[in-house]
Write a structure and sequence with these properties.
Layout: H1 2-25, E1 31-36, E2 60-63, E3 69-72, E4 81-89, E5 93-102, E6 119-125, E7 143-149, E8 154-157, H2 162-166, E9 169-176, E10 179-187, E11 201-212, E12 215-220, E13 233-241
Parallel strand pairs: 1-13
Antiparallel strand pairs: 2-4, 3-12, 4-5, 5-10, 6-7, 6-11, 7-8, 9-10, 11-12, 11-13
Length: about 240
């Protein structure tokens, strides 16, 4: 009788742990809320203007091995890779920043190969209607993949208007040792489907490449397939201003 109770207890604990992990990182989705900002952010990799101490838990994404989904390679621990992602906006701009802890930096690839460097991948569904995104074309025009690597260089993938969109992306990186910060400014005119007044949110996710000596390690905030919009979460635009 006691053995049966112990086995049942262990099973329930494992079930709860599995549910908890999936609720953080699984394809059911999550939400990050971007507060409104009364000025403009200088894109230089320095995050003092962000006043990060004012950000609540729902204004940021904390991504670690424990609560992310690793769909390529391995991540050993938080020292190997971990990141905190923040969002802000004003009338004309969406701002994304990230603080990344890393134990090694790979940065030798340029342009359309920057996905092989340490980088953030920002995934946007402008109309929040899921749709399609593949490696082989046929992508919905309101879906975007934007990479910003540890060199601070942006690149737009999986969109037929990628080169024009790229002209409306401004980014920077600041490396300290092997840790780094990223800062991105996306003009709302790059996402013409978005009407803040009527929708107030976009489909959204982030993933990171942790490249270690050419080994491509990949961790997702939402879902198990990074380019599957139906697995992304949401970025909501709060009417509340950041209390600076």
């Amino acid at each position: 009788m006691k053995r049966s109770i112990i086995i049942t207890t262990i099973f329930m604990v494992c079930l709860l742990l599995s549910f908890f992990q999936n609720s953080l990182a699984g394809p059911s989705g999550g939400v990050i809320i971007a507060p409104k900002f009364g000025g403009n952010i200088k894109i230089d990799g320095e995050l003092e203007e962000w006043k990060l101490q004012l950000f609540s838990d729902d204004n940021k994404i904390v991504l670690t091995k424990k609560n992310g989904f690793i769909n390529a390679g391995t991540i050993d621990n938080d020292g190997d890779f971990s990141a905190v992602v923040y969002a802000l906006y004003n009338d004309d701009n969406l701002y994304i920043s990230a603080e990344v802890k890393d134990d090694a930096i790979d940065k030798g690839n340029a342009g359309g190969n920057n996905w092989q460097n340490d980088c953030i991948e920002i995934w946007i569904d402008g109309t929040n209607d899921a749709g399609t995104m593949t490696d082989r074309g046929g992508n919905d025009p309101d879906n975007y993949q934007l990479n910003v690597d540890v060199n601070g260089e942006p690149w737009v993938y999986r969109n037929n208007d990628a080169q024009n969109i790229l002209k409306k992306i401004f980014s920077s990186a600041l490396v300290k040792g092997t840790n780094y910060t990223l800062e991105v400014n996306i003009l709302f005119s790059a996402i013409p489907e978005l009407d803040l007044k009527s929708k107030g949110s976009i489909g959204f996710s982030v993933s990171f490449v942790d490249s270690d000596k050419g080994v491509w390690n990949h961790i997702l905030w939402q879902g198990e397939v990074e380019h599957e919009p139906s697995q992304w979460g949401d970025l909501e635009f709060s009417s509340k201003a950041l209390a600076v």
